[in-house]
Each structure stands twice: as C-alpha cells, then as structure tokens.
Design a protein that fits this description.
17% strand; 10 strands; 5-stranded antiparallel β-sheet; alpha+beta; 3-stranded antiparallel β-sheet; 281 residues
Length: 281
C-alpha cells in the first residue's frame, strides 16, 4: 500500500440519494477516502478486494457493501475483468426523515457495525428480488412519466425496507470471512470508542501489550495510514458531527479529545478545509 498523508473526503451529495451504475474497464488506483453520507454498493463483477476500517473483503458477484458515513475505505482492483457495480449515495437526513420509531431505515448500517461485517451475501431468491428493484430504479428518469419522482422515491424506500428485512430475518447474511489482524481491528474499535480519552501511542501500546514501533508499523501495514492521522481525522469527523447536531464548537473539541481550541481549529481547517464555525452556521 502506498504512503498516505491523510484521508480524502470524496464524492458529494446534493440530493437525498443518488444512484450510479459504474463500470471501470481499465483498473483504477483509488485513495483511502470517506464520505459525508452512507454508501451502498451492489457489486456485479470484477476481481476486487475492498478494505473498510482495517478489514479486507474479497467480493463475490451480487455482494452488497454497507459503508457508513465517515468510514474509511478503498477498493483494490485486479486487471482480469471490468469492475462493475451499482453505487447508492444516501444522506443520513433522508434515512431519519423516513424512519419510524420501531422501523429505522439505517438498521442495516447499524447491524453491519454490531455484526462486525460490512458485506451482505443474500440468498439467490432475496438477491434476485432486490436486484429487480435496483434495475427499476436505474430505469426511472430515462423518459418522462406520470409521478416519476414519487415512483423513484417509493422504489428506493422499498429497496431499503426489503434489505433491512433480510438483515432482521437472519444475521447469517452478514458475510464474516474478511481478512484482518484481530489486534489491529480491536485497536480501531477502541480508538473510535475513546476519542475523548488518552489515545497517545504510549497508552495504546500499554493497553494492547505491543511495542510502540511494532504497533505503529503493523497498523500502517494493515490499514494503509498512520495511527496519528487516523486518530486525528476520526476526532475531527466526530467533532464536526457534534457541531452539526447543535453542540458549540468549543465544547465539541473537548468532547473529542483536543486539549485546546486553537489546535483543534487548525486541525479542523487542515482536514475539512473549513473552520469549525462554518458548521455552526
């Protein structure tokens, strides 16, 4: 894996959701990146190993990847055949807007976290039924028709509901054969659960009974980025989310492990190319 200085915030979403049907005939080199929205990928073909937060998944046709907002990921693509997939960008606001108390539309993304797998592998019958909806969604908008936009929204809600039903019916749909280093994945979970605490190299080394240099080398080897940069950007993203939810930036910076506001503000600008006050507006 190449050297990484920082992650890349990639893609943009001005609508509630977007669908792309992509086919790369020539292999591309992607950077590690993250999004400000959720991403659902319906994999069609290619030789692809997808890395998400320290885990590497070898994809099979019609696997579904669930990548939550802020998760750092990168595909590694072989040259044997074109990389084809359907990609949905989905805003958090859209999921909140259409969820009900007992029926949260982001349930599949939540379960991907608790089941510790970002890949769904459905039965052929379930996969076939859901893929029919994906194809119908692709066809909407190709020619004007009565209530076209409403029909598109209904189809997408149907897709999300059916996908969540598959997850609820059987947790076995979460494919758990990812390649990963158990200690590094445990460390990633620890970091994300303790962004407000002491995440110094010395403390992490003591917590995980690893020498500092071995730990840093192994983390970079398994994830493609340094521990320092990973921790910094995860803290910035968490602080940004707190600010967007209404917390003052001065409080958010302390909640996410920064000792002073000036250090936080400089790091925020470097990572997000904006000031914390911009998110408060």
């Amino acid at each position: 894996m190449g050297e990484r200085g920082s992650f890349v915030r990639s893609g943009y979403l001005t609508e509630k959701f977007r669908l792309f049907h992509l086919k790369d005939r020539e292999p591309r080199e992607y950077e590690y990146h993250y999004h400000d929205f959720h991403k659902l990928i319906w994999f069609i073909s290619g030789k692809v190993e997808y890395h998400i937060e320290g885990k590497a998944y070898h994809l099979e046709p019609h696997d579904i990847l669930l990548i939550s907002r802020g998760q750092i990921h990168k595909p590694f693509i072989g040259t044997e055949e074109p990389y084809e997939r359907y990609v949905f960008y989905i805003s958090e606001e859209y999921l909140d807007e259409h969820s009900e108390k007992e029926s949260e539309l982001n349930l599949c993304f939540q379960m991907a976290d608790t089941e510790e797998s970002s890949v769904l592998r459905l039965s052929p019958s379930d996969s076939g039924l859901l893929f029919e909806t994906v194809k119908l969604l692709e066809q909407t908008g190709q020619k004007p028709d009565y209530a076209e936009e409403m029909y598109r929204r209904i189809l997408f809600l149907k897709l999300l509901i059916e996908l969540n039903r598959c997850c609820v019916r059987s947790r076995e749909v979460f494919h758990k054969t990812a390649r990963y280093d158990k200690k590094i994945v445990e460390m990633i979970h620890y970091i994300n659960d303790h962004l407000d605490g002491d995440l110094s190299i010395e403390n992490l080394s003591a917590c995980f009974y690893l020498s500092k240099y071995h730990m840093m080398r192994k983390f970079k080897e398994e994830t493609g980025y340094s521990m320092h940069q990973y921790i910094l950007e995860k803290r910035i993203l968490a602080a940004r989310n707190l600010i967007l939810s209404g917390m003052p930036a001065t409080c958010a910076c302390m909640e996410c492990g920064f000792r002073d506001y000036s250090t936080f503000s400089r790091a925020y600008k470097k990572v997000l190319h904006a000031l914390p006050s911009d998110a408060e507006a």
